[in-house]
Amino acid sequence: MVSSLKIGSVMGIPIKLHVTFLLILPFIAFAFATSPPPLGFSNVPDIWIRIGLSLIGAILLFACVLIHELAHSYIAVHNGIKIGGITLFLFGGVSEMEDIPRNPAVEMFMAFVGPATSMVLGVIFAAIYFLVPGMKSDPYTGTMVALLAYMNIALAIFNILPAFPMDGGRVLRGFLAKRMPYIKATRIAVSVGKLFAYILALLGILTWPTGLWFIVIALFIYMAAGEEERSTTTSMTLEGIKVKDIMTTDVHTLDVGTTVAQAIDTMFRLKHLGYPVVEAGKMVGIVTLNDVSRVPVEARATTPVRDIMTRNVITLKPDDDAFTALQKLSTNKIGRLVVMDGGQMAGIVSRTDMLKALELYEVARAGVTSPNA
Ligand SMILES: [Zn+2]
After folding, report:
1. Distance from the CA of 35 to the CA of which of 60, 81, 93, 363 falls in 20 to 30 A?
2. Which CATH fold would you assign to the domain 243-364?
3. What is the distance in A from the centroid of ligand 1 to the CA of 138?
4. Is residue 252 a known part of a binding site?
5. pLDDT tens digit string along 47-100?
6. CATH code 3.10.580.10 region(s) in the chain
C-alpha cells in the first residue's frame, strides 16, 4: 500500500502527502468552519463561502507547515546533510534526514530555524491584520490573516517544547550533546519528551471530553520519543559496521527453471525463506516464502519460479554501511537484500542477520563504553 503521495519538489527535495494528511485536512477545515473569528469563519452567512474559506485556510496552514519544514531542510542541505524528502502528515510535517547530524551545533540550529520561521510568519500575518487598514473588519481576508497569525504562532510555541519529536527536543539534545555522549543526550531528551507526554495526558484526563485531543497528542509524542531513542541507538550501534561484516556468504540460489514445489522443499531443508534466482550464472530475481505461498497447491509442481519471482531485486555493496541496509529493509518492507560485489553475488543480508548483528554489537559496545553499567 502506498502511504504517501508525491506532489512536487522544492530545492531538489521531494514533497509528499501522507494518507493521514488527507484525513486531517477536512477535519481542520471543519474546525475552521465551526469556530467564530478570529479562529474560524462560523459567522460567514453563506455556507459554500464558509466551506470554501475554511478549506483554503486549512490548505494555507499546511503551506505554512511546509515552509517551516523547508527552513529545516535548507539549513540541513547547506551543512551537507541529505534530506530524503518532506512528508506532510497528521500533525504537521517531517523532514526525512538520511543521516543523523553529528554536529550538535548544526543540529541545534537546524531545529531552531523551524519554530523561528513559524514565529516570523505569524508576526507578519499579525502585522498585516493590525496595520493594513480595513483588515480587522473584513470577515473574509481579515479572518483568514488572523487565523494564519494564530496558527503560525501556535506552531512556533508547540514546536519549541523541549520534547521529541518537537524541534525543541532536538535543540535540547544538541545542547546536551555538547556536554556528554550523543546517546546519553538522546536518552535524557527522550525522557523529557515522555514526561511531557505524561503531563499532557493527565491534562487530557482532567479536561475530558475536550481533553481527548491532548491524549491523542500525548500518545503521539510518547511513541515518537521512543522511536527517536531506538533509531539513534541503532544507528550508533551500527556505526562503522559494514554490510560485509554482517552478511551471510554461503548463498543458496535457485535456477529459473526450479519448480515452486522444489523451492518449497529447499526452504524446508535449508531453513532460509528467500533465495536469489539465477539464469546462466546471472541473478535475475529473488523468490521468497511469501511468493511461493501464493501459488495454488495443484500448480506448484508445474510452475517455475521464473513466473513468480520478484525481478526488481534491491541490492547492496559489501562496503555499504549496515545502517543503510537496515534503512533499505524497513523502507521497502522486505526481508532480505542481495549483496553484489561488481557483477558477482557476494552474500545476503536478511532481517534476521540484522537483528543478530544489532544484539551482538550492542553487547560488545556496552562492554567497551560503560564498564560500570
Ligand atoms: Zn520543525
Report:
1. 93
2. CBS-domain (3.10.580)
3. 32
4. no
5. 899 999 999 999 998 899 889 988 988 888 888 877 778 887 655 666 666 666
6. 243-364
